[in-house]
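User: Hey, quick favor. My workstation is busy. Could you predict this chain's structure for me?
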Amino acid sequence: MPSRYAYAQVKVGILSDTHDRFTTALAAVKMLRQAGAQHLIHCGDVGGTNMLDVLVGTPAAFVFGNTDYERDELRNYAAILGIKCLGHYGVIELAGKRLAVTHGDDDALLARLKRPGQPIDYLFTGHTHVRHDHRIGTLRCINPGALHRAAIKSVATLDLLTDELIFLSLPEA
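Assistant: No problem, here it is.
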């Protein structure tokens, strides 16, 4: 059973695969906030607990990725910070839309979520370190890219009222 949380915000900042790259994640979150993100969603491979510190100050949620080994530590620290830990999969309700969030390394879960008739509007994933945006019927599948081991380090904003997705690339270090 997925975790479910409801919020009223409209513009979502999406990031993934930070892999403990604190400075890069800090710059990415600053960029998302400057772009108007009112809620942050991390699609997994967070790294250590210090990575959650960059999410503080904006309502935020995250899922575990395949390299997030210290899950109890991440879950407990997130609770202290007021960040929602969705486990390996969760659904967030924002602006009347249902956003499914998972890292993207569970092929069976992805196949199930992509079947027609699922009660979700968006599917956010990471894992591949390659950004994408495509539709399967009415489901919009979004991967913001990665902040580590990616040709272009990127994040994304999604306006849930207008359905406008914008990929934001971080400048080369």
